[in-house]
Amino acid sequence: MSKTQKVTVVIPAFNEEKTIRSVIKSVKPYCDDIIVVIAKKSSDKTRDIVASMNVKWFVDQGFGKGNGMRLAISKINEGVIVFIDADDSHISKDIPKLVKPVLEGKAGMVIGSRFLGGSEELYGDFNKSLRMFFSICIAQVINWRFSTAIMDTQNGFRAISAKIAKKLNLKSNHTEIETEMVMKCSKKKYRILEVPSKELMRKYGKSNIVLGRDGWRYLWTVLRNLV
User: Fold this and answer.
1) Residue 59 to residues 38, 166, 216: CA-CA distances in angstroms?
2) Helix, strand, coil shares of the chain as percentages rounded to 5?
3) Cβ neighbours around 87 below 10 Å, total
4) Tens digits of residue pLDDT in 100-154
């Protein structure tokens, strides 16, 4: 790609053998490099498929998505990092509009907002509606604390300057890392923008986020980053 900065797409993957190939193919036109972070706990053929596709990959330490994302950040020293999920729920052609404000120095991080672009995943049954309500509550607390106006603090589809990502000193091992990134960017006065991006329904399997199990992690992440 003809850019002054390198764009690296990072794809965390946990048991996504049915979609990982199509996700890798879909992001290739929009980046210079791809790193797939395979969960140590994956038990399907995700690793075999990725290894056959001539992309960089490594296995995380087995602690969760956040652990894999932090390891990827440690391996990328320049340019822009784009995080995208391996379940094929994000629209790869939206990558340029996430990356552009970072490349132009207009933002430190850009989030693909489901609240602006729509979501097939956050609506439907009671559990999905509860997750949406919980997400809105977290966003309101963050906006109150940092005088921001971010609607979607938790979507995993986002672009961030590699240099800024390294300065955040991220600690989370699970999906709450996205919330931590938003709070630490806000605390350090790095500008965060949102662009509309529709979230599609997962084609296979189900979300690994269980509110009853994971909710406390989000709450703790918010509380420890309020000061």
Assistant:
1) 5, 20, 26
2) 40, 15, 40
3) 25
4) 999 999 999 999 999 888 877 666 566 767 878 888 999 999 999 999 999 999 9
Which residue type occupies 24? I
* Mean pLDDT on 195-205: 85
- pTM for this entry: 0.92
Backbone angles phi, psi at 205, to 5 degrees: 70, -160
How far is the C-alpha of 98 from the C-alpha of 114, rounded, in Å?
Answer: 13
- Which amino acid, one-letter code, is at 157? F
Alpha carbon distances (Å) from 77 to 8, 172, 206: 10, 20, 33
Structure tokens at 6: 């390198």
Distances (CA, A) of 135 to 70, 119, 160: 22, 13, 21
Local structure of 7: helix, strand or coil: strand
What angle, rounded to 10 degrees, do the helices at 65-75 and 177-187 form? 50
Task: Give residue-wise pLDDT tens across range 148-182.
Answer: 999 999 999 999 999 999 999 999 999 999 999 99
Residue 192, φ and ψ in degrees, nearest 5 = -115, 130
Specify the DSSP class assigned to residue 62.
S
Across the chain, what does the average pLDDT equal?
Answer: 92
Does an H or E element contain 80, and which?
strand 80-83
Q: Which two tokens stand for residue 213?
A: 């199990």
Phi-psi region of 55 (alpha: psi -120 to 50; beta: other; left: phi over 0): beta
